[in-house]
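>> Question from a student workshop board

For tomorrow's exercise we were told to take the sequence and the ligand below, predict the bound structure, and bring the output to class. My setup keeps failing. Could a helper post the expected result so I can at least see what it should look like? The ligand is heme C.
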Amino acid sequence: MQMRTVLTSCALVLSAVLSGGANAAEGAAAAPAGASPPQPTPAERAIDYRKAVFTVLGGNFGPIGGVLQGRMPYDAKDVAKRAERVAFMAGLAAEAFPEISKTGNTKAKPEIWTDKEGFDKAVKTLADSTAALAALVKTDNTNSAAFKAAAGKVGEACKGCHDNYRAK
Ligand code: HEC
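>> Workshop helper replied:
Here is what the output should look like for this input. Compare the format with yours to find the bug.
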């Protein structure tokens, strides 16, 4: 009996974690006692996933941007680690725009899906610039002009896509 209670509360915690805090709290108030909270729709999941991917991308590019702007010292180990992650996350970002995620609580503009060619180019610019930065810092681990140029290109890739495909 006690074991069962523990298992049940584990399952509840897990489903709350998987469905996202805010929705789970709303659902808990509305749902009858004992019922599980409503699950997010596939579209909501896809949008949450995309935001999470960009949050991690941004979280890892941030310190590189800080070095670029002279706000942070160049720490070779940290820069190398983050450059790797940013390049990896660029691949996930490319896959984060399925058709079902067009509408909902999102800043993704409809042009992402209507101007496929332009958007694919923006995605490729991110992939290419982040791969180039990750490759560079493997051989040049100093705050060199080459590093600044490569990191700057990544920053331009972010901005270029946001200007055209992300709502304010
Ligand atoms: C190919 C287009 C594209 C590129 C390139 C891009 N972004 Fe974005 N980014 C978006 C879109 C679209 C959104 C809005 C996502 C949503 O609301 O569903 C977004 C959202 C974000 C967010 C907010 C996430 C959230 O929680 O709402 C951050 C942070 C972010 N991007 C950082 C970056 C950084 C840093 C880079 C460059 C390293 C970058 N992005 C490159 C398209 C792009």
